[in-house]
Amino acid sequence: xxxxxxxxxxxxxxLAFFLAVWHVVTLQPAFDPTGLTQxxxxxxxxxxxxxxTEQGSYLYNPDKIRGIPGPLILARKTVEELSEPFHKKxxxxxxxGHLVVYTVTRFAAGFMSASLIAVCIGILIGLSRPLYQAxxxxxxxxxxxxxxxxxxxxxxxxQDPTWTAILVVFMASLWPTIANTAxxxxxxxxxxxxxxxxxxxxWTRRLVMVILPAAAPTIIAGLRISFGSALVAVVPAEMLxxxxxxxxxxxIEWNNLNISGVMFAILIVGVVGIVLDxxxxxxxxxxxxxx
Length: 291
Known about the structure:
Elements (H helix, E strand, L loop, with lengths): L6 H19 L12 H9 L3 E3 L5 E3 L10 H12 L13 H32 L1 H14 L8 H8 L2 H26 L3 H9 L4 H39 L4 H10 L3 H29 L4
Antiparallel strand pairs: 1-2
């Protein structure tokens, strides 16, 4: 069967190959007590490294994984976590559903507020050539700074980890959208502006009917870059700030040396990222066009 036109078959084959290799590489060897004294075996049993069977032999404790967990262990962890996604068993023991909501809420607040402000600033800069030339050096300096580098200053300023996480996402989303919006507005065909003047459109109608539609593809490109940067920034921000969310889940599982938990958290971060990115792309297609 040809894979031409059916790339999903190749994707499934690659996934199956990856899972098979992962399973083989991470298979746990059988416990071999040869050379160990009874005291050493008792110590290992006391520490939970091995368990005694009904027949009196020893096995590695399946709950205390050595090395990287295999796909079956990750699958069991995933089923376990998703069986009760919205539980709350204390201040910091919230189900994965709650943690995803916390992360998406911070992401949405930071990204949407930054996008609104960045588009407005970008339009102003793009409409004024002197302002564009005056501010462009500052934008180029600030744009490559990692949003996490701002975190100590933001935390010191607002004294609140939740707001700090939102502001980190805000900083990650701001500069690409400003730069692209300014470029898009400044690059609008002069004919569009001249027609708007001939029609004596007000500034507001000129903005809504001419400038924004003409610059929309470039603005969307900037928002897409900001979207990716914000997604990358929100998880480490939650890790460093200790705020409940997917970053917190990853870090707390690492602190517990639960590697399957870390891998589960990474998997959920990837799934959430795909869902959010898919939703954004659907919205972007509604306002994107080609000349």
